[in-house]
């Protein structure tokens, strides 16, 4: 499965060249890891965000968000965000900051 390279580039531009951010191809897409923990990713034209179990309900109430169920089973603490909800940079940046913040709080791998 291909991923939206334009969305990936927007993620790179926002997260910048931070030493603790790495990219890795995963799930047929591209993932951005923080200290070895996945923070956000791109699968197809959707953004995948790690929001954590405590942040899931609030995240799912936001426009374009749904439970991430890549394998057909819901992944708790993760959401997928439709491309239509990411047109504005402010919306994308909010999601990126949330995923980055969550992953930053996890012990490095």
Automatic annotation (TrEMBL):
Keywords: Methyltransferase, Transferase
Keyword Methyltransferase: yes
One protein family per Pfam: TfoX_N
Annotated TfoX N-terminal domain residues: 14-99
GO biological process: methylation
GO terms of molecular function: methyltransferase activity
Claim: Methyltransferase is one of the keywords in the record: yes
Record-linked SUPFAM superfamilies: YgaC/TfoX-N like
UniProt protein name: RNA methyltransferase
Organism: Streptomyces tirandamycinicus
Top-level taxonomy: Bacteria, Bacillati, Actinomycetota, Actinomycetes, Kitasatosporales
């Amino acid at each position: 499965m291909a991923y939206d390279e334009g969305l990936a580039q927007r993620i790179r531009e926002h997260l910048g060249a931070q030493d603790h951010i790495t990219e890795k191809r995963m799930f047929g897409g591209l993932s951005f890891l923080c200290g070895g923990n996945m923070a956000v990713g791109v699968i197809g034209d959707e953004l995948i965000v790690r929001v954590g179990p405590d942040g899931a309900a609030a995240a799912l109430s936001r426009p374009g968000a749904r439970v991430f169920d890549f394998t057909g089973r819901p992944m708790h603490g993760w959401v997928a965000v439709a491309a239509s909800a990411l047109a504005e940079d402010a919306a994308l940046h909010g999601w990126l900051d949330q995923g980055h913040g969550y992953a930053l709080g996890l012990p490095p791998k």
